[in-house]
What we know:
Distance between the termini: 35 Å
Largest sheet: none
Amino acid sequence: MDFGLWLVYLVASVGLALTPGPNGMLALTHGAMHGVRKTIGTISGGVLGFGLVIAMSMFGIGALLAASAQLLIAMKWIGGAYLVYLGIQIWRSPAIGIHQGKSQGSVNVIQLFRSGFLTAVTNPKAILFFVAFLPQFIDANRNLGIQFLILAATYMVVEFVYEFVVATLADRIKPFLQRIGKRLNRVFGSVFVVIGIALPLRG
């Protein structure tokens, strides 16, 4: 694709990644709770999920979703229910610094990967956004598959770097987070529950 157009897309992707969302919050939470190394599983799952969302948007599934009110409503409730579930799990987690060794040892990286992946793919707002966002950078006279690979890879790299930085900062300030204990989990858990409830209720 045209290099100048790609640079515009890169800047737009950075701006989109920096916009607060469920996956960034999840990376922050898991970075503080489990450390950066294990949170790479969460980040990788979210990045792969966004790649799938971009694929669906580019190849028509996103357009079908936008045209089907019932399907959109169903996906909103599924996505909202999953975020509420994540919020409850975070709320009930042991406080950071309390039995930390046991908590980290029992964490399954596959579970963290699944959390990141499902948080990305169950957000219909992301699909609808990419439906409107991506066509501006598509050249109908060029190979759609190659353009998809370029656009998807660009955003996935940007998102990975952003979430990794967020998780790293959370891990570095863990001594401070240990002092506020269980309240941290309750704050993050509440945020996820609020997002999960608000998602299906918004128009």
